[in-house]
User: Fold these one by one.
Assistant:
Number 1:
Amino acid sequence: MKAMFAGFAAMILIAFGAYFALQEIGFSTQDLSSGANVRLE
């Protein structure tokens, strides 16, 4: 049971870490799918 909770905690930490890391380096969906003529607010 302890290993399962440790795995869930690791998944959550990895997901949040990846989200913020990808936002910082510019790999967000908004940055990749919009061109110069598209205004996203």
Number 2:
Amino acid sequence: MRTKQTLLATLLLAVFAAAPVALYAPAADAAETAAAQAKEGWFKNLVDFDYMKGQVEIPPKAGVTLIDSRPAARKYDVGHIPGAINIPDSQFDKLTGKLPADKNALLIFYCEGPECMLSHKSAFKAEKLGYTNIKVYPHGFPEWASKGMHVAVSAAYIKKQIDEKTNAVLIDARPARVFAKGSIPGAINIPETQFDKEAGKLPADKATPLIFFCGGLQCVLSDKAADKAKALGYTNVLTYPEGYPEWEKLHGAPAAASAAPSAAPAAPAAPAAVLEPGKEKGSVSIASFEKVMKESPASILVVDVRDEKEFKKAAIKGSVNIPIDQLEKKMDSLPKGKPIVFVCGTGGRSGEAYDMVKLVGGDLQPWFIEAETTFNADGSFVIKPPKK
């Protein structure tokens, strides 16, 4: 009996001695887990949805290129991750010119989910070209869309909706003054800053496809307006991040927008020797702005009307941030003794700020930059002259 008890005790001790190894062994890290789930033929560097959320932004993050490896017409055009370029794997060798010149830039490939091998195949091809920072998002576009994230469409898709006269509603989220110069044919104008007041322009049927766009990849108005539409219960909300600048490049400006502009009136009250007017009413010439910023920046106040998030990433040295949706409330804080120059990424919000100040700003001296402006982290900037 004692022998049996001794044997049983020995066996139990052996079992419990081994148990802690299984119960308390450290969990594998995310990379190991991903590798364990990887299928044959998959690329080695895999990322998940949470990682993607940190990389997908409008304006796009510097040094990050998202690549949709799916076919254009059947997949990419009708829905893709915002900011992604399309390089179908079947045409990879022909379209390598779309890839960044910097071989150390982050490339993230994706396609149609875990069963789709296109992104992995393209990632291996990019590796052979010498790119050193390549990742694949294996769950791809289906997971992205299922999580309720923004879904973007292409210019080709929009052209098809117009040609086929579908019930899709195109919504230009830029200020009215910019919309009046030219927009995608058939689009309605609901400025993002006036969305709550003008939401009545939206269709009653909440399932109607809505496609929001604005001034290109540096413009956040369409994303913000799309979020507001979703909050109202619209269930088929899309964005066209490349917006009107790409559309105009591809299809030209509509006839209504090609009329000769009227002569620019006298500039707002401001020292003539300091700032000179641009072609657009209230705008400042790029040359005079750059000269003032170089020689006497303290003689003007530069007000950046982009969102705080954009401003914190990069802004003109010495500028202050008053987001366009807060400007009316903070107008009393603006100085009356010097010219005020409003800036943004494309000229849309800055122009709206000018209009707002002229309407209710009393004797303030507003100007605005009517051009595409690139902001650098060191406080410098580059202004691209507006199209003639």
Number 3:
Amino acid sequence: MNTRSETARPEAARLEPAAPASGETNAARAAPLRVALFSGNYNYVMDGPVRALNTLVAYLERNGHDVLVFAPTTRTPAFEHSGTLISVPSLPLPGKRSEYRLGLGLRGAARRRLEAFRPTLIHVAAPDVTAYGALNYARDHGVPAVASFHTRFDTYPRYYNMGWLEKHLTNYMRHFYSRCEHVYAPSQSMIDELVADGIGRDVRIWTRGVDSELFSPDRRDMAWRAAQGFAETEVVVAFVGRVVLEKGIDIFTEAFLKARAANPSLRALVVGEGPERAAFEQKLPGGAFIGYQEGEQLARAYASADIFFNPSITETFGNVTLEAMACGLPSICAEAAGSKSLVEDGVTGFLAPPSADGFADRLAALGADGALRRRFGAAARARSADFSWDAVLAELVGHYREAIDGFVPSASSAARRQNAAS
């Protein structure tokens, strides 16, 4: 990856961009964008939103656009990021989620870099303090702002005995996203949910893509399966993701144990790390916990399983579900926003209300029917072919341009821009 990290220094020398992808028009190539992207996490924890944002930045730079990314950083990043990363002041979140950091606002060196950059578009990817400052900058300087919606943060308190806080977070999110020209949600079901909750004025789709060469049924490796302790006759049920409460690991455990009581051939494979791993292992005896995986190792783990089980209701899209589908796995997912736009019930897998009994019934049934697993898996692989990154990102750039073209700055910000130019 083209990686540049900065705290407070002149912008690093830029590499010459590659030729634009076919999704960009001649007009787009003639008018490069200057995008300032704000995220609460960009390279210190790998998750689905971060993968999407890094892919977006790489795509924009390949197509001749200028990008600066503003986000908290750590001394031990999880991977090499795309593009130029400007560190913002931050503190670790308290409690069990200390691997994530809270940005403390847009100020100091980071603000000076933004002002020198003179963006034509602000893109915020999390409704945090720093992004709120970016929206203030956009308002004051007459720059259009857009937002991508990655997570229902307002649902998190219910997993930490703080359910009373949820309605207040939802109200804040209504206010935050109302300040954006567009809000980009990753699935139609998520759009429907946001519209129903009054979040965002103009909610559009920015779906996700998948590398179908990397994530493929051809990665299935029976020798690797055996090395993890799985017998050839066992049916491997995979969980992939951050091992945190909001991913539904408690209901995964309860449903899986009920299904295994009915079908002892089921065995669990857990791919991922997180603060709840030790508790998850204790509750799921006999499961194979292989930690965080990426690239070919991750694809091999997916393809070597037999069923993908994602009980989470906090997903706005479900990158892990799409990757599993590309690897030819049938999925069992919660009937919730995100999964509903990927999994076709009874065709590529099963959707179920988020209850242990409902999940357990479907796990036991699918685990007992190899022909059904193969049929669902083939349909899932075919469905995943609809998700191409270049096409998806070219469409997003089109949305960017519509946000810029349709933007009407306030009178005060227009006067400020005029004074600055004169």
